[in-house]
């Protein structure tokens, strides 16, 4: 079975852009992957000879457990449960938000391997601004640019290094 990578984060940080960057075919045929349900957004990916499944999620707002927001939270929790590695996506342009802290708290309790991808970091890979993301307690921020295809290979290598 291929390793499963879930993309988690608040709306607009670039999860779907990263999903498209990580996958070559969208909506992978999940029938082959026992245990994966069909109501999330799966893709098949390959980087440097490694094959994997990616799950995109809609978002996560744990403070407002109603309606569509609760549905997104549920979707995220289900994706995390299915994942071998979780990529927590944050936004280099906006910095750390309260919602990022809420998601970080949830992910620290989830007992999964979690990586912190700081997206929209094109031209910022050496920027001291990235250091603030350490406060999320998820580990070293990994700068990426989903839109420009930067940092993607090393993100996947780190995500899959134990598989
Ligand atoms: P999602 O809500 O987390 O799925 O975010 P989207 O993938 O829909 O992206 C939200 C916005 O961020 C869109 O306008 C994207 O074009 C933009 N975006 C995504 N990745 C990057 C990036 O690497 N750099 C920049 N500058 N913008 C990005
Ligand atoms: Mg999206």
UniProtKB/TrEMBL annotation:
Role of this protein: GTPase that plays an essential role in the late steps of ribosome biogenesis.
Descriptive protein name: GTPase Der
Organism this protein belongs to: Pseudaquabacterium terrae
Subunit structure: Associates with the 50S ribosomal subunit.
Coverage span on the entire protein: 1 to 163 of 445
Positions of GTP 1 binding: 9-16, 56-60, 119-122
Family to which this protein belongs: Belongs to the TRAFAC class TrmE-Era-EngA-EngB-Septin-like GTPase superfamily. EngA (Der) GTPase family.
Gene name for this UniProt entry: der
All residue ranges annotated as the EngA-type G domain in the record: 3-163
């Amino acid at each position: 079975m291929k390793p499963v990578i879930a993309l988690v984060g608040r709306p607009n940080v670039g999860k779907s852009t990263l999903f498209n960057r990580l996958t070559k075919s969208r909506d992978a045929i999940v029938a082959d992957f026992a245990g994966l349900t069909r109501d999330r957004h799966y893709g098949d990916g390959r980087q440097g000879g490694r094959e994997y499944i990616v799950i995109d999620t809609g978002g996560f707002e744990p403070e407002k457990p109603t309606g569509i927001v609760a549905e997104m939270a549920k979707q995220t929790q289900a994706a995390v449960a299915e994942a071998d590695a979780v990529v927590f996506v944050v936004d280099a342009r906006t910095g750390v938000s309260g919602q990022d802290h809420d998601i970080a708290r949830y992910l620290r309790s989830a007992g999964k391997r979690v990586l912190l991808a700081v997206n929209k970091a094109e031209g910022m890979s050496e920027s001291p601004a990235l250091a603030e993301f350490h406060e999320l307690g998820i580990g070293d921020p990994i700068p990426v640019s989903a839109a420009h295809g930067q940092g993607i290979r090393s993100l996947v290598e780190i995500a899959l290094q134990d598989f």
